[in-house]
Amino acid sequence: xxxxxxxxxxxxxxxxxxxxxxxxxxxxxxxxxxxxxxxxxxxxxxxxxxxxxxxxxxxxxxxxxxxxxxxxxxxxxxxxxxxxxxxxxxxxxxxxxxxxxxxxxxxxxxxxxxxxxxxxxxxxxxxxxxxxxxx
Length: 135
Prior knowledge:
This protein is an alpha/beta fold. It contains seven helices and five strands; from the N terminus they run βααβααβααβαβ. It has helices at residues 8-15, 22-33, 42-48, 55-61, 74-89, 98-109, 119-125, and strands spanning 4-6, 38-40, 67-69, 113-115, 131-132. Helix 1 (8-15) crosses helix 2 and helix 5 (74-89) packs across helix 6 (98-109). The longest helix is centred in the middle third of the chain and has 16 residues, at 74-89. The protein is globular. It starts with a strand and ends with a strand. The mean pLDDT is 94.
C-alpha cells in the first residue's frame, strides 16, 4: 500500500513550529509527500486537536488535498491491545496510552510506512513496521 502514516508528534512539530524538531519534521513531510499520500487516522486527528482552537481550524490545516484520512481497521484494535498489554507487563508507564499503540498497529495491519520520532516504541512492539525516524 502506498502512502505514509504520520505519527502525531511529527505533525505537531509542524503545526506548533517546534523549535527543536520543526526542520526535521518539515523535511520528512516534503520528502514523503513527493512519494505518496500523507495519511492520518481518527486517533492522530484527535491527538492533533488540542493544538487548534476549533475543529474548523484543524480541518482547514488538514487540507484534504494533502492529507488522506483512513479508517481504523478492526484487526488493529486487537494488535494494539496485545502490544499494550505486553508493554504494561514489561513495566511500561501508564503515561503511554493505548491510542499510541493503535497507530503502530494500524501501520502494521495495513503495511504502511510510519513517520515518527518515537522509533524505539514502534521497533519494540511493531518490529515489522517500516519507519522513517531520526537516526
